[in-house]
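I am writing to request your help with a piece of structural work I have in hand. The matter concerns a single protein, recorded as an amino acid sequence and a row of C-alpha cells. Could you please explain, in whatever detail you think fit, how the C-alpha cells follow from the sequence? Thank you for your consideration; the sequence and its C-alpha cells are set out here:
>
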Amino acid sequence: MSEALVRLQCKGQMVIPRALREEVGISEGAMLKVAVVRGGQLLVTPQFTIDRPAVLGRKGRRKQVLRELAAVVDEIRQEAKANARKTLSKKSTRPVQ
C-alpha cells in the first residue's frame, strides 16, 4: 500500500503527492469524497462525474451512453475489488456506521 506524510495547511488544504495521484488516476479538478471511518481515519475516494448534455441529448444516444457508463463502472469496480484484495483486508475498508 502506497502512503505519504503530508502537512495540513491553515485553510485545511493538503497536497497529495504526484506519485499517489498518478497511482490512482486522479488529476487536477478531480472530485474527491472524504469520509471519517473507524478510529478517526479519513478515507479519500475519487468520484467520477457525468457529462449531463451527453447523457440528456437524443434518446437513442442516451441509452448508448448509459450502457457505456455501466460498462466503465463495472470495470472500475472489478479493478478496485482486485486491488483491494492485494492491499487491504475487508475489515480495514468498512466504515463505522
In short: The beta strands are 31-37, 41-47. Residues 59-87 form the longest helix (29 residues). Residues 88-97 have pLDDT under 50 and may be disordered.
